[in-house]
Amino acid sequence: MRRRSVGLLMAAAMVVPTTAAVPAEAHGSTKRVVGYYTNWSGYGRNFLVSDLVKNGSAARLTQINYAFGFVDAQGNCLSSDPWADYQRPFTAEQSVNGKADEPGQVLNGNLNQLKQLKQKYPKLRISISLGGWTGSAHFSDAALSPASRAAHVKSCLDLWLKGNLPGLPAGAAKGIFTGIDLDWEWPASEGNPGNVIRPEDKQNFTALVHEYRKQLDRLPGRHDLTAFLPANPAMIDRGFEVRQLFKDLTFGTTQGYDYHGPWETLTNQQSAIDGPAGDPTTPEFSSQVTIDAYLARGAPRSKLVMGVPFYSHGWTGVTNQNHGLFQPSTGPAPSTFDAGTEDYRYLKAQLANYTVYRDNRAGFAWLFDGTTFWTWDDPVEMKRKAQYISHRDLGGAMIWSLDGDTTNGELISALHRNLR
Q1: Measured CA distances, 28 to 46, 93, 122, 329, 418 (Å)
Q2: Domains plus CATH for the chain?
Q3: What is the pLDDT of residues 246-299, one digit of tens each?
């Protein structure tokens, strides 16, 4: 059954071509604005930690999740890219504080830049995110027993929070991270091919989170513990004891995107707030379905942070009907880095080639040029998502990922100023 949110009944037309902009508004919200910064952002995308200052993101964020640390086959934490994390030197022009890294200094890389960022924004919280799509293969083993859980957590806190990085003096990166973000994709459900999964992952994940909470509470100061949570209600029930988890979590972030994508042949939305009329696919995937699922299973509203995308999914060879929506395609659309996926800032540069369409009732937009179709989360849709988060009194918004925004930070600006 399709449902309609009262907060979304705000438009007379179902689908309208538009180029409307979002007006500036004052902001007085206390809601969380959480953004993922990836350790690969500084390569081809050339989006550095210092760009978070330049485009205004750092001033609007309450928390950064730095992605990703990995877990090895023995359950120990390790850096997925030591060069990016703590070895790469930055020039004065590249650095947050405007000073070049010096030869022989103890800590370099993104971690040193994050350290400078915290000095500039003392209230900013920074967590290390563990796992992700390609780094979750061994979570099930790490969570398997009380002994494996205790050893895994000790390893991760030692590496990331106590800052004992390989080849560097003890505590070289201490104090940069104020929390742990668990991105196990997914307990008891298949994620990346080759991941270890077990039916008992559900209970073991609860126990793992509790072990993190216990060991974090033994450290001096306040430390966050968060988790990235799936959108699919079937995966929630298979892998998550929601009510118990949220007792130990500072907050949880929901997957508010990838509802559909170029792994399917039909074009569709990837981040609609509600299920659109005419969608030929089942079951319905939407933010409304996901948020309702977590609330019904005991998640507190104040700890539920809804994910939003700073990127698009695309198809090409699309049948020219219904403005391209729900139409067959010949495959993923060409893009800058990964076929079928494009950062907002790169796609915006091509906007003159497309018409923008919006489903104001279901809450999503897309681009179509007669043959190529892209999902489209622009400032108008960020405003809409912020209003939905506020209307439902949720804990805030989470961004994947910060490198997708423009040089003037127009997406995070629209999101931030419309949270209430």
Answers
A1: 32, 33, 19, 44, 9
A2: 30-311+377-417 (3.20.20.80)
A3: 999 999 999 999 999 999 999 999 999 999 999 999 999 999 999 999 999 999
What residues act catalytically? 185
Q: Could you write out the three-class secondary structure of 46-103?
A: CCCHHHHHHCCHHHHCCEEEEEEEEECCCCCEEECCHHHHHHCCCCCCCCCCCCCCCC
| CA–CA distance, 358 with 366 (Å, rounded to integer) | 7
pLDDT above 90 covers a percentage of the chain that reads 93
pLDDT tens digits, 65-104: 999 999 999 999 999 999 999 999 999 999 999 999 999 9
Alpha-carbon gap, residue 72 to 75, rounded angstroms: 5
pLDDT bucket at 30, cuts 50 / 70 / 90: confident
Distances (CA, A) of 89 to 100, 108, 175, 375: 8, 6, 20, 37
Which residues have CB under 8 Å from 214's CB, separation 6+? none
Does position 4 have pLDDT exceeding 50, yes or no?
A: no
Contact 89, 42 (CB under 8 A): no
Residue 23 has pLDDT above 80, yes or no: no
- Helix or strand or coil: residue 365? strand
Average pLDDT score, the chain: 94
Which has the closest alpha carbon to 309: 277, 369, 269, 282? 269
Contacts of 34 (CB under 8 A, 6+ apart): 61, 62, 63, 64, 65, 226, 253, 305, 396, 397, 398, 399
Judge whether residue 20 has pLDDT over 60.
Answer: no
If you ran DSSP here, which 8-state letter would residue 161 be given?
I
Dihedral pair phi/psi, residue 67, rounded to 5°: -120, 140
Give residue 3's pLDDT. Answer: 27
What are 313's strand-pairing partners? 341
| Helix or strand (DSSP H, E) at 416 | helix 410-417
13-18 LR contacts (CB < 8 Å, sep 24+): 13/360, 14/277, 14/359, 14/360, 14/361, 15/323, 15/325, 15/357, 15/358, 15/359, 16/357, 16/358, 16/360, 17/355, 17/356, 17/357, 18/356, 18/357, 18/358, 18/380
